[in-house]
Fold:
Amino acid sequence: MSPTTGSECNRAHCLTCNQLMLTVGSQGLYEWLVTDQQFDLLQICPEVALGKYIAIRSIDSGPLVLTGKEKAAGWESRGQIAYSPKVESVESLPRAGYDEWYIFGNLRQSR
Structure:
């Protein structure tokens, strides 16, 4: 994937519209982005998570310890990975900076 700007901006490249420094890549069906800048991906481009499932490997450089509220909402933890239910709203997703997320289109892929 190559960066786009201005009118070329679309869902796959939405982060480059804000002139953020990103490294993006792909391998087969998988795509990724890496940056060392602080920003809220879900505020800029919530479509990357809506209707999908998230596996959180690290949040603020450590494992996500689920709260009772998150467990009641359908989150599960196995080992040191937290798995979300289908994402219906990005506002309630846990994030703290220096996070490592994996986003999947279906539940079977995420586990």
